[in-house]
Amino acid sequence: MNNRKKTSGGQTVPSRGLFPSWRAVMKKILILSDSHGNLDNMIFAVRDTDPDLIIHLGDCWSDAVWLHRKVADIPMEHVPGNCDCTNEKEVRVIRVEDRDVMLCHGHTFNVKAGYLNLKYSAEERGVHAALFGHTHRVFYGTHNGVAYLNPGSIGSPPPNVPPSYGIMEIGSPDGRIRYDVKYIE
After folding, report:
1. Cα–Cα distance between 28 and 25 in angstroms, integer?
2. In a 3-state reduction of DSSP, which class is residue 69?
């Protein structure tokens, strides 16, 4: 496998928040999910994107811990997946710039059967973006002003689908959340 990449086409979401940020200025976010031991692909994604923040959406927690040790100078947030044995919170909301972002693996919202439970939770929490994994399939879109992104699987994608990862930019000059998915081929 060579390491050419292609993009699926960036999307934007209008700004909704007016809250001050407690985090340092962070613009480019690398979003990983379902690495399942494929550490090389995670390192490739970090080198390819040069992110300000890394988010790992579970499966496998130990991969996220390993990656954070390798790139300790880049802040990281992560949540456990259904294959992870940890007592960490399965759903978290973090603030990036002036936007609230919900992180989850997706299994607690049964995303393999549909996105309605995830959508309800995101809207109830008043977040600007909801990031999830679990299905190993790329999904992105905007509904009621909330950006939804599943970056697919960086380590164990479905047959005939290359590994993938997400990129989200928050704090752009026009106040929008921008997102994209890249594939490793």
Report:
1. 10
2. helix
Domain 5-184, CATH number (from 1.10.260.40, 3.40.50.2000, 3.50.4.10, 3.60.21.10): 3.60.21.10
Residue-wise pLDDT for 42-75, tens only, equals: 999 999 999 999 999 999 999 999 999 999 999 9
Q: What is the DSSP letter of 24?
A: P
Tell me how far apart the alpha carbons of residues 109 and 123 are, in angstroms, rounded to a whole number: 13
Other Cβ atoms less than 10 A from the Cβ of 85: the count is: 7
Q: Where would I find the beta strands (DSSP E) of the chain?
A: 5-7, 11-13, 28-32, 53-56, 76-78, 91-96, 99-104, 129-131, 138-143, 146-151, 164-169, 177-184
Give the Cα separation of 115 and 111 in Å (integer). 5
- List pLDDT tens digits, range 153-168: 999 999 999 999 999 9
CA distances from 51 to 10, 57, 125, 161, 169 (A): 16, 16, 26, 24, 10
Map out the domains of the chain as residue ranges.
Answer: 5-184
State both tokens at 48: 């390819």
